[in-house]
Amino acid sequence: MEIETSKIKVNERVRKEFNDIEDLASSINELGQIQAITIDKDYNLIAGHRRLLACKNLGINIKAEIVNVKSELHKLDMELAENVKRNDFNPIELAEGFQRRKELYEGLHPETKAGQSQALGMNKKLGHDVKTESDPTFVEETAKAIGKSETFVKEHLQLNNLKKEDKEKVRDNKINKSQALSIMRKENKIAKLKEEVKEVKAEELNIFHGDCLEQLDKVENNSVACLIIDPPYGIDYQSNHKLAKHDKISNDKEKAFKLLDESLRKVKPKMKKDSHVYIFTSWKVYEQVKPIIEKYFEVKNCLIWNKNNWSMGDLNGNYAEKYEMIIFATQGNRRLLGEKRPVNVLDFERTGNSNHPTEKPVNLIKELIKNSTVEGEVVLDYFAGSGSTLVAGLETGRNPIGIESNEEYINIIKGRLK
C-alpha cells in the first residue's frame, strides 16, 4: 500500500544519524521505491526511516507494509534487525539500542536483572519456578533476534560503559569499536589495580613509608646482602625533561651530605658481614660523597652508567652530559657473582623519568643485583623513589626492601609491584 509521508509517525528511534539521503532520493526517483517501509496499524514507523526521509524530500507517497506489533520489545527488535543487517548503525547507536532492549527485556523478565541472584536462590529453596541455566539469556535472545553472534552483542553493550569523550570519538568515526574497547579494558585494568593498591598496606610489600633514619630500625641487623641507593645529590636538582615535569628533589642541597652520612652509619649494622653497596652520584659532588662512603665501607670502583643520550643544560658553553656515576663499595669480602667479570661502564637507556625526576632503569638495577646477590637475598633501597630497585628485585627473585618518605611515590611503587 502507498501512504502519504505526512501520515507516518516517527517516535524515538535507535538510529539518529542518516547519510546520503539525497543519493537515495535520486535512486528512488529513477528506479522507484524497491523496498517498502514497515509500520504498525497506527502508522508508527518501525523500519525504513531513511527511505521515509528520501520520499519526503521527493514529495511523493511511500510504499508501506503494516505488521502486527506484539510489544515494544518486538517493535524495537524489528528496527534493530533491519539496520544491523544493512550495517547502518553507528556502533554507539547500536550500543544504546541494545541497552534500551535490555531495559525492556528485564521489564518482562525481572529475574534476569543484576542483583536478583539472592531472590532466585531463595525461590529455588522454596520450590518456586525460576529461570534455569537452560533458559535463554538476554544476550542469547538478542543475538538470535538480530541474527548476530553473542560476542557481537556483548561487545556493543560494553560500549555503553565508555567515557563520554570516547563515545563521541566512536560516534564521529575517529576510533572504531575495537579500539574503544581496548582503551576501556586498559582503563578498567588500571582502575582495578589502583583500587587493589589502596587496599594493600605498603609494609605487606616490604615498603616502609617515612624518614629513612627512623624506618631503618625495621630492617633486621646482618640481613642485607646488597644496598642500592640513589640519594639526593646535593646539587639542588630539578628535572626539566619535556615528557615529565616533577618537583625539586627534597633535601637536595647541603643537607644531602649530612643525610647520606647519618643513613650510612645507621645502615652499616644492617648489612651482612660480606655485602655490596652501590650509590648513585654525580661528578659534581663526587669528591664530597666518596669520603663519606669511605667512613663506613671500602670504595672499590666508580661505575659509569652510559645513558646513550644526553641532557640539555648549557647548549653552547659546555659538553653535553650522557652519564652518571655509581660508587661501588664493599663490606667484608663478597665476590662478584656474574657469569663473567663485569666492566665498569654500563650501557642502559634512560627511562624518560615518567614516575620520578631521577628514575633509574629497572634493567640497570637488575644488572647490579645479579652481579652481587643470589636469589632470595635481601636488597635494600632506602631512597626508593618510584621503586625501580624493588621491581628489579622481584623480577630477579630477590627479597627487596624499600623505604620512601613521599606518600605519592609509595603509591606509585605499590602500583608497579602489583
Q: How many distinct domains?
A: 3
Architecture (CATH level 2) name of the largest domain: 3-Layer(aba) Sandwich
Number of strands: 12
**SSE pattern, N- to C-terminal:** EHEEHEHHHHHHHEHEHEHEEEHEHEH
Would you give the CATH topology of the largest domain? Rossmann fold
Q: What can be said about the biggest beta sheet?
A: 8 strands, mixed
- CATH-defined superfamily of the largest domain: Vaccinia Virus protein VP39
Structural class comes to alpha/beta
Separation, N- and C-terminal Cα atoms: 66 Å
What is the number of helical segments per DSSP (H or I, 4+ residues)?
A: 15
Globular, elongated, flat, extended or rod-shaped: what is the shape?
A: elongated
Entry summary:
This protein has helices at 21-31, 49-58, 72-85, 91-108, 117-126, 138-146, 150-158, 164-171, 177-199, 212-215, 255-267, 286-294, 362-372, 388-395, 407-417; strands at residues 2-3, 37-39, 45-47, 62-66, 207-209, 224-229, 271-281, 298-306, 323-331, 345-347, 378-381, 399-404. It has 418 residues and is an alpha/beta fold. α1 (21-31) packs across α2 and α13 (362-372) packs across α14.
Report on the structure:
This protein starts with a strand and ends with a helix. The chain has an eight-stranded mixed beta sheet, sandwiched between helices. The chain has a four-stranded mixed beta sheet with strand order 1-4-2-3. The protein is α/β, with parallel strands linked by helices. α11 links the parallel β6 and β7. The radius of gyration is 34 Å and the shape is elongated. 40% of the residues lie in helices and 15% in strands. It folds into three domains: 68 residues, Conserved hypothetical protein from pyrococcus furiosus pfu- 392566-001, ParB domain, CATH 3.90.1530.30; 109 residues, no CATH class; 208 residues, 3-Layer(aba) Sandwich (Rossmann fold). The relative contact order is 0.09. About 7% of the residues have low confidence. It contains 15 helices and twelve strands.
